[in-house]
Design a protein that fits this description.
Helices cover 36% and strands 20% of the residues. It has 372 residues and is α/β, with parallel strands linked by helices. The chain binds 2-succinylbenzoate (OSB) and magnesium ion (MG). 2-succinylbenzoate binds next to loops.
Amino acid sequence: MRVEAVELHRISMPLVRPFATSFGSQTARDILLLRVRTDVGDGWGECVAMADPVYSSEYVEGCAAVLRDYLVPALLRASSAGTDATADSFAGVARFVVGHRMAKAALETALLDAETRAAGQSFASRLGATREAVDCGVSVGIAPDLDGLLAEVSGYVEAGYRRIKLKIKPGWDLEPVARVRELIGELPLQVDANTAYSRDDIDHLRALDAFDLLLIEQPFVEEDIASHVALSRAIATPVCLDESITDAVVAADAIDRGATSVVNIKAGRVGGYLEAVRVHDVARSRGVPVWCGGMLETGLGRAANVALAALPGFTLPGDTSASDRYFAEDLTEPFVLVDGRLPVPTGAGSGVTVRDDLVAAWATRPPETLGA
Ligand code: OSB
Ligand code: MG
């Protein structure tokens, strides 16, 4: 496969309701999309970075810059020098840029889409999926008040979600969790702190053991593996890392040190879907369950996440919610919940079609074309 050009598209999509976390509140998704133009056809990739560097160090404008100035030129050079520009060979090109995993993941995904589409193969089959549908959970933001939270959660329970995840932070934890547990009965429940706590909060967090949670996600800052080990020893609720897990080596180490007994896998956070499969593999070989995280993706990113979540080690419901949990209108054909599950796309490539009319209508700046 030869890459002829790469297009950078920027769009904004309003969320159906604000999504508040310990790192701030989002009311819209500012998204970078990539289209690769190759000799065997086009491929699309979605960059999952947030508008601001608040979840991780990456942010959408920084991703656009590193793609424009480093990753895309390196790919175009390698391709014109005769390197077969596949997702696999992109690892060799990307290695010379340190970090910037979300930017790399977006480009790798576009290459993966182009090559699998051309080969008539689905993402699911390329990644090694073994299921035709995946169990879905929903991630619930910090609400303005408890009544608002309970109303939102009730709507998701009615929609059929198989697991509820509550965002927590100091001052918004034990009471909302207690009230939601009371509301939903035995339905699986978990919490996500997005690094809002410190090691001094271990005694406080232990009180969460009363609510029979599936897990507590990323209570401490991403580099602080030691405090996660200390918490894991102190509480019965399983500890799950999100932000900390940046590749398969880190995942294996965090598991082996007892910092995490469940892993949230996000392809963008680990540099792409191929590395995400390797994280799945190291966890599975250690008997550690994984689940697919989310970054408020459009249908494009969601299609790839649902394919990933269909791998055998993904034994817990993911943050792979239906399109209408995020957007009034999706960028692709919408994902619709069926009995608390989403069907895994079976068509070639991502299996979904990006609507060019919407990319144009929702554009926040003119597209840029690199190469050609
Ligand atoms: O920590 O899992 C997270 C969204 C944006 C950034 C980080 C996170 C999230 C979510 C939402 O929890 C997951 C989703 O529904 O896409
Ligand atoms: Mg998280």
